[in-house]
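Format notes (please read before filing issues)

Several people have asked whether sequences and structure tokens are stored in separate files. They are not. Every record keeps both together, in the order shown below: the sequence lines, then the token lines. Line labels are part of the format and must not be stripped during preprocessing.
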Amino acid sequence: MKTNGATLTGKLLTAIGVVFVSTLAARGADNPTAFQLVREGDRYVGVQCRDKVVQIRSERSFGSLHPNIWYVLYHDPTAALKVTQVKFGAGKMLEVRRPLRLLEPLTGGDLPLDSEKLKFDSDEAINTALKEPLLENVKVTATQLKLERMGEEAGGVEGHGGPGDAVWKIRLWAKRVGEASRSTDGSTDIGEIWVSATDAKVVKVDVHPGRLS
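Then the structure lines:
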């Protein structure tokens, strides 16, 4: 009987563990990272586009620091403007289209990023930005991200990176103190922090906590 009881207990613990892991997986699927969505987006584009990311951007997050509306743009040599875009909401594909991007072909913004240098995902970029000393006493409530090629004007900002390197541009909102906020959810846009997608170093800091006073 002891053996049967131990076996039953073991099976029960295993079942609980499976349910727990499945629950975590389900939660993660609702809010995947940007690079996870690139792999998912490969299913909805032609073979000529797969893994050839031009840009990744999100809408502003709500109720979380991690956005759940994302756009993954792929280099597409068969498209008139060389780009195919896949839109995601909560990890699910919502739309595939070829967006109108008139200036990017002239500036090289339609060329794929170097995938070997894309080592730090959106969640890691957010975590890095939040460690910035200027945010020490700031309650950040929302983010909006864009991964794209660093332009010539930003090359070597603060000694990091250079033109053509991929950088996460993270716009931040925080709780406003005192008078009414400038947004309906009680938060204020305080600026951007740029984080390298290659080495996770902060490339540029343009945040203004003074806007919260």
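For reference, the curators noted about this record: Residues 2-30 form the longest helix (29 residues). The beta strands are 53-58, 69-75, 83-89, 92-97, 140-149, 166-175, 187-196, 202-207.
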